[in-house]
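User: Structure tokens for this complex, please. No commentary.
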Amino acid sequence: MDCKTFRTQVADLFDKKVSPKTQARLQRHMDNCEACRNYYEELASVAYRLRPRHSPLQDQQKPAASRRWTKAASEREQARTKFKAAAIFAGVILAAGITAATIHHAQNRPAQPPQVKTTPVNFANVSLDSILSVVALHYGQTVVFRDEEPRQMQLIMTWNPADPLRDFVRRLNAFDGLLLTMQHDTLFVEMKKEE
Amino acid sequence: MKKMMTKPSDDEVHDARPVLWDKETERLIKAERASLLQYACYRLGDVDEAEDAVQDVCLNLLSRVKAEVRNPVAYLYRMLSNLCSTRLKESAGRTKISLEALPEPADSEVEDFEQEYRRISLLLGEIPEEQSEVIRLRFYGDKSFREIADILGVPLTTAKSRFTYGLEKMKKIGMRN
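Assistant:
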């Protein structure tokens, strides 16, 4: 795929459902082309600003897309969303060759880190909470969410476990409104404050 | 003001057509109602007005003979889009948004729907209507690009390119400011 083709097809990454084949094809190009990766991340940051987060229909039945971006939700709704995110996440991880046991360990923060994996992982609309639960474990980091909102942000990105942590943090910080900071062995996550 | 779904519209009275409320139509409206409402909320900025508009288009659909409407979902959104545009024009004087009233960009701790609506309306107001409509249908109507193409009666590639151009343009505007 060349850059021109990528840019004509990048909208697919914002569609209601993205086919794994399309996702993988576009992701492969972004892995090898920084300009197109930056282009996508810029579009994603604008899209993030447009997502409904304060819909007055919060207490009513809503489309799934808006649920992803709504901060205030009932516990039941949160549990449902988490289950959905976990289901997607499990699929991604399994595809990357990491066992479900790793996820379980990630959520419970075991004393012993799992085996180091070097296979890149494609996260397709996975919540930041789930992404960090595995990534932080890999780097031996503890995650602290200073704000609750970023937890349910659904992201499309690739993580290569062979890359240094600072690269991963830099890429996450390219998302509009998101701020990750590293202090010793802790990753702090919060919404970027307006200056 | 809420309208009862059983109340016939002016068209129905004029055409003397019976309201068709079968299980299929009911299921369709039930399935689409939340998305229609959210779309209308982000067009009109008011829940009550959005509910009125959604009920109007649902009544309109019910008043049609089924065979007339080949794609009822696309028909609903097309009707709702037109109705919202008309109502916005009618109320332009009283609900005009001034640039001075523009709230700061999304601060999740303080922003409410009204501020979010104004911020998003101003952002979308910076790009051509045909592009903003695709974005609205995608994010607030929760429609796929295939569905959006059907609603707008354009090729799929056109729907996608309008979406991308719209985001690109807003990004450039954001960088300029």
